[in-house]
Design a protein that fits this description.
single chain; 219 residues; globular; 11 helices
């Protein structure tokens, strides 16, 4: 279980750091800014989770591999930003992958600290969305979780798969992969089809225009 959690955490750290660094490079930040946003995007959710469940000091602070992973991802995005940009919506794809990995890793870790099923699912969701929120705030954007297609709901669904699997004593690797796949699929389908939670009707037209402008900047 410890090995599985470490693999999920580091994989999520890498893709979230890559997403954060790519977004920062698009905003023309310097090398320090790109690396700082990469670390914040990758580790904020995990730090918040660890503090809340009592896993202190947080793994992202005491384990050098998290920082090294963030710096590597940030360096890749800084050096090969133009190549990454040629991919289809790179920030969104990396962000969806990080969301999926962190959602299941957060739920798994919360379960190992004996949180109840409901709170473990919410810890998974928090782990997934926390880094994206901090990244967007640092880049002076409204966080994606508050304005975009299904985001927190996708993370919660992935975390719920892990929690339900634990209740039925299913193998953790199976539930983790299944939960991550569900979260990633929901997020990507939401992006492609425009699925989102209900919005105020009187503000729908104005918010749609503003969201399209923000999404263009994110892409």
């Amino acid at each position: 279980m410890r090995t599985l959690l470490l693999i999920l955490d580091l994989a999520g750290t890498f893709v979230f750091a890559l997403a954060g660094a790519t977004a920062a490079a698009r905003r023309q930040l310097d090398i320090f800014g790109v690396l700082a946003v990469a670390f914040a995007a990758a580790c904020s959710g995990g730090i918040a989770r660890d503090v809340l469940i009592g896993a202190v000091p947080p793994a992202a602070i005491v384990d050098w591999r998290y920082l090294a992973t963030c710096l590597a991802a940030g360096g890749i995005a800084f050096r090969w930003h133009a190549t990454i940009e040629r991919m289809a919506n790179p920030v969104r794809v990396f962000d969806a992958a990080g969301l999926a990995l962190f959602a299941v890793a957060g739920a798994q870790k919360a379960l190992t600290y004996e949180l109840n099923a409901l709170m473990a699912a919410f810890m998974g969701m928090l782990t997934g969305i926390g880094g994206g929120v901090v990244r967007d705030l640092l880049l002076a954007q409204i966080p994606i979780v508050l304005r975009s297609e299904l985001y927190a709901v996708a993370a919660l669904a992935g975390a719920a798969v892990v929690v339900v699997g634990a209740q039925f004593d299913l193998p953790p690797p199976v539930t983790a992969l299944s939960g991550a796949a569900l979260c990633f699929a929901l997020r990507m389908m939401a992006i492609r089809r425009g699925w989102h939670l209900p919005r105020p009707l009187h503000a729908a037209i104005r918010s749609e225009t503003a969201n399209e402008r923000n999404d263009d900047e994110t892409r």
